[in-house]
Amino acid sequence: ARDRSERAFGVGFVKLMNADGTTLQDGKHNLIVYKGDNKKMEDAKSYLTLPCTKTEMEEKETPSGKNLHPLANFTPTKDCTKDSFQIATVICSTKLTQNVDLLGLLNWRSNAHNIAHNLRKLMEVEGGEIVKFLPDTLDALFNIMMEMSENETYDFLVFDALVFIISLIGDIKFQHFNTVLETYIYKHFSATLAY
């Protein structure tokens, strides 16, 4: 606002959430810098449908090498811009996950037909991701056990998942989460059917 002669020369952006509900993966991301009409760059609707990273652009290109998202006022091909912008991200959240299998379990009610699959896949999720969501994961497991009590298959899968989580907490790498587990048991556990 101070210097009206300064004009935007490019725009780059990143999508924090993926289409499957997980968050952007930790690590480095090479953002595409789009150039074009200054007025168009101020309107997010004009570029948010475009690929935001070089990787995404390569995935969306057709075999002929033509981009699937042509936009008259931007130059979104890797050949016509030498500019790029690299960022590094690290997610710090106890509510948003980068793991689609853990997300499937935490949102089990909206994906009831996938409960058995998600319970099996939980035992393949990296331990560090599970312990971040320990109370929510335990809530999901006990709620499945209580609300799906007519299906014996779920009981065994939930039991296996609980044994997996407890043995995970017993690992020296995650032993400091033992207090989180104890607090959950003594203050939050309320699944009478599972008791």
UniProtKB/TrEMBL annotation:
One annotated Gene Ontology cellular component of this protein: plasma membrane
The segment(s) forming the C2 DOCK-type domain are: 1-92
Q: Which protein family is named in the record?
A: Belongs to the DOCK family.
Could you state a single Gene Ontology molecular function term? small GTPase binding
Q: Which InterPro entries does the entry link to? A: C2_DOCK-type_domain, C2_domain_sf, DOCK, TPR_DOCK
Transmembrane segments in this chain: where?
none
Identify the PROSITE patterns for this entry.
C2_DOCK
User: One of this protein's GO BP terms?
Assistant: myoblast fusion
Could you identify this protein by its name? DOCK5 protein
Per the record, a Pfam family?
Answer: DOCK-C2
